[in-house]
Amino acid sequence: MFKSFIGLWLVVFAPLFFLLYPHSYSPIQLFNNHIESTRFIQAYRGSFYLLQQALQSTSADDQQHKLADLQQQFGFELKLSRLSDFANAPAVQQDLINNQIVFINSEPEWLAQRLTDSQWVVMLAVDFALQEEIKRGAQGTVFLLKQQLSQLPVESWPSTLKQLEPHFAARLYLQTKEQFSLTPLQNRQMAEFGFSWKPEADGQLTFITQLNDSTYLIAQALPISSANPFNIIYLLLVFVVLISLCMFLWVWPLWRDIGKLSKAASDFGAGQLNAQASLAKTSAISALGAQFNTMAKRIEELINNQRQLTNAIAHDLRTPLYRLRFAFEMLDSPELTPQDIQRYRERISGSIDDLDHLINQTLVLARYNRSSLPLNMTRVMLADKLKQDVQIMQLQQPAVQFDIQIAPSLQQQTFYLDESAFMRAVNNLLANASRFAHSQIRISVQQQGEHRYSLSVEDDGEGVKDEDKTRILLPFTQASGSTNTTTGHGLGLAIVQQIAQLHNGTVLVENSLLGGARFTLCWTDNQDAVRHDTN
Questions:
Q1: Residue, of 231 and 427, whose pLDDT is higher
Q2: Residues near 234 by beta carbon (within 8 Å), at least 6 away in sequence
Q3: In angstroms, rounded to a whole number, what is the distance separating the alpha carbons of residues 217 and 477?
Q4: What order of strands is seen across the sheet that includes strand 440-449?
Q5: Backbone angles phi, psi at 387, to 5 degrees
Q6: Which of 37, 73, 136, 421 is deepest in the core (most CB within 10 A)?
Q7: Sequential DSSP letters for 268-293
């Protein structure tokens, strides 16, 4: 859950922070710079054209003085800079060399254009409130327009405006007082500033200035605001699409993996016990998929073992039952001698013992086959317990030599074990070795690693074939492959395997240097590990 939350959070907010955090590559900042630049360049393109004309007629030495005089007529700061001053901004410098009007987003904001064939750059500050911006920004332009038109006859003014219009982002035309009436607000602006303006509903501006007693100059459709609704909608659309795409790229693999897991669960429920969920390790639900696969494999093993156990029990029960039935039938025969009657009674007793042993072993295996079995874990002096059991086994098998080899460091060490279960496993290994050994059995205890130990039981018998080394650990299976032998029912090693698993270990079947088989019980002497595995 935490992994999924962090992934979704990063996918959603990383682009958001990238968009909103102010830095040189911020899309919002770049977008804002673009629309601000476009608006200011359109609004003051005509002003720079007139400034170029006014300064070109002045010598290089007098341009500073001329610009200082013009500064009095402009509401914004007006200054000259050298082209070399922009060396630290190569892109801006190149645009100035190409005689383009450049917007410089700083404090304050500037518009700049190189004087034609000169190393000087005219810079105009453009950073005030709207009304102040209009008032200050229009003063110099109005002055230059009036100055240029005052040198021409009134009849040529319309044609002159037509020539100037391509250099402005507005329509320039003349109207008489009779054709145009001013509002009271516009009259006050005209009296105070010598010009007036009127914001239009489409976000543009109509600008009015009086040229003489009877004529007004109108500049229509000047840009007034950088906030274009279509630009905002476009920006929001890009933002939504970007975030949606990132979320989809995260959600789609999750949805795909959930579908795989759901199909595997459905197949498993339909009886396909080998169904597995194939998920990549990078998947957000890889841990859940791994747990499902482990659960499905465990259930499949349990069902197969239960089926095999049921079949094997049914098979092994038939033999002693048939012997019992035959013996009872024979006891009814009048021709039996007392010796025959005694022999059949012994067969009946042996069959009953055989049934009792089979049932007990089956119950023991069923008990240790439960992974939830609560073990009685205590600290056990294994070396002492092992020596005691070997002494008892030596008395039962006097023809076999038992050799115990315990590492010196483990002689006095205690181990965290279920004593009853663990010693049952040891006794089963000793009994199995005694059944096949010719004359020698070796028992050894070694440390394999940190908290990892092994107990080996070897014999000098015939050994175990390679193809049987895994199979003989299954219930009701013996090295010969038969489930009906006089040497046992094939449950002893299966019980050892289950007890080893309950101690977070396993059983290995190998060839012994003595010539027979070597059974090694490996386990973990780690209190936390055993508790985790058994609870």
A1: 427
A2: none
A3: 111
A4: 401-406, 440-449, 452-459, 517-524, 506-511
A5: -65, -40
A6: 421
A7: HHTT-TT------TTSTTHHHHHHHH
